[in-house]
């Protein structure tokens, strides 16, 4: 297996404020043209979850949410807004922890994170009670965007949809793949690779899609940069012609939960 000399990452500038119904692939193609760049088959296009959710109409006004008894009970326990808790319940398969600091949920896609990924940052109307939910199926969204880029640009780079997540026992968030197409979520090197001293690797499974999402987050930014897409170049080793199983392929099965 060949080794990569370097990966080059750059944020794609000049993108619009995305609204429901807009075509992300078309806007990426136009921005690439304006930048004087050309997409290559081995590129990875990392896209912030927020713009995917916006284009898919996933914005919700808390005032419109019908609140049930379970959400009201959680609100009393956590001192958090009952309507937000109802949305967290609706988007989750399980609530793992609920405190005033955060609600840790297993999202219905299988990802475990705070507040089921729901927040109001960089959301129009966030100050007035609007929040954004994750895409219904992030892997399907990644596949559709990849196909759209192929139609616009004539090549099919891999696509990773990324959101910022915290990690157990660590401070801060990192970019994490919640959907992907054209790239494996993990590279399993157990039994095939060797260390420097010729020992066969026994436990090495590399989180490829997450690592690329984290790299892209550093150039995309987390605030008012307005650059929700990054291009990573030098990733030919991992990009595949087939869309693959998506980010779901990198989720640890519930039966292997080591924290309970």
TrEMBL record:
Would the keyword Transit peptide turn up in this protein's UniProt record? no
Q: What superkingdom does the record give?
A: Bacteria
Q: Which SUPFAM superfamilies match?
A: CofE-like
Kindly report, in one word, the top-level EC class recorded for this enzyme: ligase
What Enzyme Commission number(s) appear in the record? 6.3.2.31
State a single Gene Ontology molecular function: coenzyme F420-0:L-glutamate ligase activity
Pfam families under this entry? F420_ligase (PF01996)
Going by the UniProt record, its keywords in alphabetical order are: GTP-binding, Ligase, Magnesium, Manganese, Metal-binding, Nucleotide-binding, Potassium
Looking at the record, the residues that make up the Coenzyme F420:L-glutamate ligase-like domain are 15-234
NCBIfam families given for it?
A: F420_cofE (TIGR01916)
Annotated protein name in UniProt: Coenzyme F420-0:L-glutamate ligase
Origin organism is: Novosphingobium album (ex Liu et al. 2023)
Query: Gene that codes for this?
Result: cofE
């Amino acid at each position: 297996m060949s080794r990569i000399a370097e990966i080059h990452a750059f944020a794609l500038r000049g993108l619009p404020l995305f609204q429901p119904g807009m075509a992300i692939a078309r806007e990426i193609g136009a921005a690439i043209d304006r930048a004087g760049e050309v997409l290559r088959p081995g590129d990875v296009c990392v896209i912030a979850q927020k713009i995917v959710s916006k284009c898919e109409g996933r914005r919700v006004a808390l005032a419109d949410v019908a609140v049930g008894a379970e959400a009201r009970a959680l609100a009393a326990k956590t001192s958090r807004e009952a309507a937000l808790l109802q949305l967290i319940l609706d988007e989750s398969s399980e609530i793992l922890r609920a405190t005033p600091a955060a609600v840790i949920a297993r999202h219905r896609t299988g990802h475990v994170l705070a507040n089921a990924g729901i927040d109001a940052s960089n959301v129009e109307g966030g100050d007035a009670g609007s929040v954004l939910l994750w895409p219904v199926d992030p892997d399907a969204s990644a596949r559709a965007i990849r196909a759209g880029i192929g139609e616009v640009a004539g090549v099919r780079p891999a696509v990773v949809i990324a959101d910022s997540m915290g990690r157990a026992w660590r401070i801060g968030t990192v970019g994490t793949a919640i959907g992907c197409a054209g790239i494996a979520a993990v590279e399993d090197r157990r039994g095939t690779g060797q260390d420097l001293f010729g020992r066969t690797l026994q436990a090495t499974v590399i989180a490829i899609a997450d690592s690329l999402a984290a790299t892209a987050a550093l150039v995309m930014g987390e605030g008012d940069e307005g650059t929700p897409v990054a291009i990573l170049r030098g990733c030919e080793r991992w990009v595949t012609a087939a869309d693959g199983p998506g980010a779901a392929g990198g989720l640890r099965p519930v039966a292997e939960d080591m924290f309970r």
